[in-house]
Design a protein that fits this description.
alpha+beta; Ribosomal Protein S5, domain 2; Alpha-Beta Plaits; 2 domains; four-stranded antiparallel beta sheet; globular; binds L-homoserine
Amino acid sequence: MKSVRAFAPATVANVCCGFDILGFAVDHPGDEVKLTLRDDNLVQVVSIEGDEGRLPREAEKNTASVAVISFLKAIGSSQGVDIELKKKLPLGSGMGSSAASGVAALVAMNQLLGNPFTRAQLVPHAMEAERIACGSAHADNVAPSLLGGFALVREYQPLDIIKVDATETLFCSLVHPHLELKTEDSRKVLRHSISLRDTITQSGNIAGLMLGLTKPDYALIGRSLKDVIAEPIRAAFIPGFETMRKVALEAGALGFGISGSGPTVFALSETRSKAQTTASAVQVEFEKRQLKADVFVSKVNQRGAYIID
Ligand code: HSE
């Protein structure tokens, strides 16, 4: 039977000042999905590796199958498919784990059926995967995982996603402590209204970040990587967060913040060596607090998810 394998990268959502509206993709790590067409109409998750048995196998609950079901419904198809998932991203890490599985499955399904959708048209189906994973259909992980680079969600209704024409010379440090934080939980703690003062600060920073990325102006990127909405609340879940920011900036990073809903933290740097030094300095801070942490350093990824074979 016809099979396709696809890879979808991890993503950093929010990028400090773009809560729910901005994200970027990294080269690695990411999830891998293999889809095999069936000769009936069943959509089945037949195997998952790397999740220690923790992800749901039921088609209506797993992010990969939910995305595929939404896709098939949109084109009015009753095609069945077997889904094999290789989970390389840690669960509850803030690195876009649920998004990557849904995105890889969609890219593979699209290829199998002759690409009826553009990458941008796949976004709403990937958002269904997010809805099932955490109760909120945000697009700031799925859009960059599908499109690569920085993706801006200018509007949700109707959906308007813009790939930012950002500098390609930017390196990301991701430091993932061995802690787990469910997106659902770290969304529940957020305030539902924001003061005028914080709205002004956040708007200035997101506008500054967009300009800094496109010019490019690295000092402006650095000054704009600030969050007054989610980070002040979520930082409490990450031991040593403020010290880590200090050591990251001392190591030469442009800015530092929480990756998505955490607990992974990220930094952006102008060179790979600064990104590496930053990642090591932050890792040491986690270790000082008896937390093992994995480090991933990569260029901001430009191509997003891709077909392996
Ligand atoms: N924007 C989302 C949040 C991303 O911060 O809750 C979740 O990865």
